[in-house]
Amino acid sequence: MGKTIYVVAHPEATHHVHGLVGGWYDSDLTVKGQEDAKTIARSLGARIPKDTSVELFSSDSLRARRTADQISEAFGAAVTVDSRLREKSYGIAEGRPQSWLVERFIPPPATGDRLSHDEWIPGAETKAAFAARIFAAMEAITTSPAEYQVIVTHGFALTFVIAAWIGMPLPSLGFAEFRSAPGSITTLRQDDYFHNRQVAVLADTGHLGQR
Q1: Which of 62, 74, 121, 188 has the highest local Cβ count within 10 Å?
Q2: Residue ranges of the chain with per-residue pLDDT less than 70
Q3: Residues contacting 8, CB < 8 A, separation 6+
Q4: What CATH superfamily is the domain 3-209?
Q5: How would DSSP label each residue in 15-69?
Q6: How does pLDDT run across 18-36, given as a tens digit for each residue?
Q7: Three-state DSSP class for 12?
Q8: Whole-number pLDDT of residue 211
């Protein structure tokens, strides 16, 4: 059986408009974000065949759960909340102005061990720890035989969702990055003959112009 997974990056949240560090900071959707969440749900309804069973997974962050609730209502699907789908933790920087983080952040080296790099922000996750938990979540999600699944997560997390889907080994992720945008939908597919895994559409935002 083939499989299609739609990966939703939650739409605009309050930390975006206030210029604050997100991560595990539990910001909520803005009014625009709430409207975009409804648009995302309608768009998924147009992409997934009617009367099809859908499995729905969400980060436990408030902004992701608000988005998942709109999708749940559209499909009548229960939401499986998984804290492993959270955004990267930025430790004590979370909820502070982005400028505070920028002034203290030590970027990873151009070569060498970038995954275990210490960014000098107390309490922040390394990319290695971040990637490992996303990979664990994806392993649990993709073992399900469900033909259609929806994952609601975060912009940075999307890179590791995709990497897990296509089977990139964890040690090779130091330079990996897939672009994203708030409210985007990424389409992942596996065919039922070769069982190849595709990134069919990356971070589509065309639906957000449709009200």
Answers
A1: 188
A2: 210-211
A3: 40, 44, 67, 71, 150, 151, 152, 153, 183, 184, 185
A4: Phosphoglycerate mutase-like (3.40.50.1240)
A5: HHHTTB--TT----B-HHHHHHHHHHHHHHHHHSPTT---EEEE-SSHHHHHHHH
A6: 999 999 999 999 999 999 9
A7: coil
A8: 57
